């Protein structure tokens, strides 16, 4: 089973890129971020014609998340992250797909830091930690995938000394990410490539992609019941070089197709 996350940076403007990648990569489940479109403008017909069912949580001009499933309909289980009722930003959606629980997230950027946006980022991260702990306690196969807007270590950023005061790399944000993995979540890409410098984002400016001056912002975290099924992980780096591409590249994992533990019947 192949699961991917992709910050599309505007689903309608980059729909040809998304559809081409879906056809070539054929992921079974996809988490999308930065739709930048209200619910009514989600291109559901084109997605369905590509062979995918979808749920989405849109927002005009900004944010927006979606979950696609090849040949099936995701069953929505949550829309919006709990913990702050007045927060209406479209940053989290969750669904059951083929025995897995998929959480798709777009964590706030937080810049400039310090400031109100950074305060919001830290509150949002705290809410994610609380919800992740609840999911972890369920003891079911869960994937938390998306654009976390954090580089966990110096290995995840080109020239880390230039990012020390940025909201993507400040110590409090990295500490929050490590607190998340300390709950028992496995950083899938790093688990398969422990010492490799891999990036998932390259800015449009200063020839960042050509120079490989990137950041690893997009992560797939696996619950303890799911992590043993991880067989491969990677970044579809070439997609970043396509015409009119997003500034992010798709990140994917492959799981052993063994039947999820939470569906097995107990032995007699």
From TrEMBL:
Endonuclease/exonuclease/phosphatase domain: residues covered: 4-248
Cofactor(s) in the UniProt record: Mg(2+)
SUPFAM superfamilies: DNase I-like (SSF56219)
Record GO terms (molecular function): double-stranded DNA 3'-5' DNA exonuclease activity
Keywords on record: Hydrolase, Magnesium, Metal-binding
Entry EC no(s): 3.1.11.2
Family membership noted in the UniProt record: Belongs to the DNA repair enzymes AP/ExoA family.
PANTHER family xref list: EXODEOXYRIBONUCLEASE III (PTHR43250)
NCBIfam families: exoDNase_III, xth
Protein name (database record): Exodeoxyribonuclease-3
Organism whose genome encodes this protein: Ancylobacter polymorphus
